[in-house]
């Protein structure tokens, strides 16, 4: 049965954890074909036994010396965002010849909206060639050490997505950021410089919009700047979703200052819900499409938000052609710890 938002009414998001209180729906089945083989029913951890810090499970990476810990550590089956036969490792991007940093400013056809104080949506902000680069980089990082896995909670329930962290690892079980992943000892790959530049540019353009709309001199009071040192990359299949939650696991200082979360969306569109209240039925809805950037900081830093659904076949065709991206959506959220 569906509720008014088209969600299964018996599985409406329950506020709980995530990068803060991501709720989840243990009753809902995940896309089995995408699950690492070791994912079973209830277990202590989504990927098996937790490691002591200092241990490392290097089995994740092809071509490395495997640590001799096969009895205790499960293998994390790599998740490939792109379908086999992917062209994403090819150097050519066909007719897409723009480069990173060339755009500098908002492109034609973009649309900018202040959704609420401190919350800005930059529609179609990321160019197609930048989206292609994002997919290619995330694919490679996602297949390497510290790459994608399907996170779970203490009770064994899984998030309905694949996740990888850059900069620092976020642990959904403890809701803490750590250098090393608890279950395999991997360090988070570094945030690619191009990603950080894109975030910086988006904040600058959001500032320009706020200045124009509010006629204020100090935009930092409304939307503070930030330099990301954390990025959580989520891949949602078309069945993916994320329950209503707040992002509140960053440092106290970062949260008090309202340093923004900058979210980039690539691939299929998502119905994104947001609002002041924990109750998802009171949330507002906005469509996040491929290339959109959503920023929430200042007074909007603590909004509840969720991904209600992914809209199949809504990604730009050229993105599939260039990358063979699986049906689904990639979302990158940047934060400053
Ligand atoms: C998140 O809240 O962590 C991700 C949101 C999104 O996928 O848009
Ligand atoms: Mn969030």
UniProtKB/TrEMBL annotation:
List of residues binding Fe cation: 245, 247, 305
Primary localization: cytoplasm
Reaction catalysed by this enzyme: an N(6)-methyl-2'-deoxyadenosine in DNA + 2-oxoglutarate + O2 = a 2'-deoxyadenosine in DNA + formaldehyde + succinate + CO2
Annotated signal sequence range: none
InterPro entries: Alkb, AlkB-like, AlkB-like_sf, Oxoglu/Fe-dep_dioxygenase_dom
PANTHER family with a match to the protein in the record: 2-OXOGLUTARATE-DEPENDENT DIOXYGENASE FAMILY PROTEIN, ALKYLATED DNA REPAIR PROTEIN ALKB-RELATED
Name of protein: DNA N(6)-methyladenine demethylase
Organism: Quercus lobata
